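User: Could you check the structure of this?
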Amino acid sequence: MGSETEPPRRQVPAHPLARSKPAGETQARGARAGGAQGRSPRPVRPLPTGEHFFTPGATGARRTVETKSAPLLVFLFQMPRWLAPVVLVALLIAGLVVPDWRGGVAVLPVLAFIAWLAYLSWPSLRPLGRLLRVAVGTFLVLLVATRFGLF
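Assistant: Sure, the predicted structure tokens are below.
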């Protein structure tokens, strides 16, 4: 029979949000964002190079979550690099400092964000990476539980 060969690799990213925009579209976006105030527009960070925007061969719930998460991931990637860690650390510190239910409410977005990223990255993780994500998730769940008075 025929020899099995790999299909040719895609040169264009699979998801439309990962594709680079034509020069005219990027300039028009920048002109709207900063032209009215006289400021120069903030440069848009290019998406990282990669062949797959989604997990190859994913089906069902994973494929749905990855598809719905793609626009949010692109949005987060375009934000300043320091913003997400600063917000998450501030919420975590608030959750550690405030000993009542408000501390638990502050930690819930951190737990949701960490769980979401762990789910998305799970197929590409080695066992130690998986263990660390489970440990962090367990710590955050226990922190929330103590703040809500369950322990």
